[in-house]
Amino acid sequence: MATISDVAKLSGLSKTTVSRVINNHPYVSDKKRERVLKAMKELGYIPNPSARRLRGQLTTTIGVIVPRIVNPFFAHLVNSIEQAAYKKGYQMLIGQSYEDKEKELAFLNLLKTKQVDGIIMTSTENDWDIIESYNEYGPIILCNDYINQEVAPMIRLDQTKGAYLGANHLIERGHQKIAYCTGGLFDEQGKGKDRNQGFQKALSEAGIKINPKWIFIDQHTIEDGKHVLRQILEMEDRPTAIFTGSDEVAGGIIIEAKEHGLLIPNGLAVIGFDDQPIAEILDPKLTTIRQPVDLMGERSIEVMVELLVNPEMEIRNYELPIELIVRKST
Amino acid sequence: MATISDVAKLSGLSKTTVSRVINNHPYVSDKKRERVLKAMKELGYIPNPSARRLRGQLTTTIGVIVPRIVNPFFAHLVNSIEQAAYKKGYQMLIGQSYEDKEKELAFLNLLKTKQVDGIIMTSTENDWDIIESYNEYGPIILCNDYINQEVAPMIRLDQTKGAYLGANHLIERGHQKIAYCTGGLFDEQGKGKDRNQGFQKALSEAGIKINPKWIFIDQHTIEDGKHVLRQILEMEDRPTAIFTGSDEVAGGIIIEAKEHGLLIPNGLAVIGFDDQPIAEILDPKLTTIRQPVDLMGERSIEVMVELLVNPEMEIRNYELPIELIVRKST
DNA sequence: TAATTATATGAAAATGATTTCATGTTCTTG
DNA sequence: CAAGAACATGAAATCATTTTCATATAATTA
């Protein structure tokens, strides 16, 4: 690989001048700039990022933590982040936390060692106190997941409203016996908590009591959804509708219902969350709450880049619209 | 951040000795090693990767190129690669080529600038002549996609056999009028070509002629599949079965068939490729050809790590098993 | 016991960039 | 036209590490 010295030698100028051209510093005459550019092209010169980093320059790499990339919601989110990053000349380093605290910390360490300029977290496993300690090494922003304090920029949705819209829709369809199925645990913080609140608000406004037997926690996959449906079938007093925290779980419920001859939506109305491609594939098609994934990715990169340019930037929340998509499963 | 000099100062030893401890060089006395380790722990010292890279050390980062991460097949592949890489202490840098030659080259440049130790390509957009020119900067291995020369290690499946199995299955079910739907173009190299051959072999063995009107090329998404079905419905002479290059396209066909009241498999038998989660979700469940994604990811990392340790390693192919999964769509 | 050889350690060079400082030229401005 | 400001250039320092070279001591061998 050609180095800056090679370029300097070939162009008959100093490394300093070459460096100035690379970083388009103003004080370079047009003639010499031309000579440098010509030499650079001739040698196929690319500045060595390790050397630039060592001098405290930016890495033009942004880290993204996701729980698991095979979850289509996160695949889409990662996709939109990567697209936006590429447009701005950034690379994307991906890490899967697999809901493991250690893995999350291992990834945050990349910030400490300046391998990434900043990190976008789409989920958080550790407490914020711990994550915060990495913040001094570079910006951390939360996208999708969030916590209820204004400590870092957050790209978030009004989850409370989303859950409220969904629950309300079920109530309007005449349901009184509504089950609830969440990805998190019940006393959690952030996203899950807000959804719980929205759900509860809708029900209490309609004067409906929540039956604790109809609450399912820690449900994530299609398999989990199937299992939930089997549990419901065994109940004496069954719910007539179920609100789920993800399209995948909703999908599992619908697939298993078909297996057991339970009709959707007449036997059980099902509502999902995310509006993933699967929502259109299921039969019946899934009523769900759409999260504007592309917007979230784009906005995250925008905020990250601003923050890298101006680290003193004001920390605030960016709330994006959330929307109910009514299809055939309710 | 603490530097190696800080550790040297605190431990009262030289940078050299500290470096020796970090890289566990043999010639360090146990006593001093202890002192260094203690100082390192006390300062929370982590070596600066940029500086190490600059000195020509490995980056412990492996680049992975995928066409698009939202394609569940590639999401799973990336997942298995990341898992395997993490276990061996490597990070994974992802780039989406979006089937764009420029983007692919931009990513290959990371090798040139030593930002990654090696690159795993799960698809290739540029000709091998061009890709090969990056090979001198670090190992490139092909996983999933491949070319028909032994120029780089390839983790591949016997695609010819896969397509043969699928086509044969349709023929055994009594079909004579079989359509073919591929992701690539028709005269392509590598994966697509082998599949074409397998398909053709099965048909010619059964004495069946291929109807060129029933060949669909460049089909990738669910939407593409829907479109294919509409085209079939408009034909006077319709096929009774269709072989597709991906579960997603097959899914689109099945969904659209339902929309038009065409029964699967009686009106049209459909066979997919990949055995993605969607295959189990579709109604009827999809007959498909399973690719051992987890194995492919694992093997790729194994080979990559070996190759990094011993760059002179013999180049060879690693062929993994491929399998027909019969469900309800045929 | 003298001569190798293996073990231990550190000073200084090297890696490839950017930044600081010094110096010289050209342009404004009073 | 003198003096200060703006422009243009390069030598050398700097970033955090590894590697080379030099040197000293301990262990082995002849």
Automatic annotation (TrEMBL), chains A, B:
Which Pfam family, any one of them, does this sequence belong to?
Answer: LacI
| TM segment ranges | none
| Top-level taxonomic group | Bacteria
Q: Which residues form the HTH lacI-type domain?
A: 2-56
CDD domains in the cross-refs: HTH_LacI (cd01392), PBP1_CcpB-like (cd06286)
GO MF, one annotated term: DNA-binding transcription factor activity
Q: Does the keyword Protease apply?
A: no
State the UniProt keywords alphabetically: DNA-binding, Transcription, Transcription regulation
Q: Which PANTHER family match?
A: LACI-RELATED TRANSCRIPTIONAL REPRESSOR (PTHR30146), NTD BIOSYNTHESIS OPERON REGULATOR NTDR (PTHR30146:SF136)
Task: State the protein's name.
Answer: LacI family transcriptional regulator
What is the organism field in this record?
A: Anaerobacillus arseniciselenatis
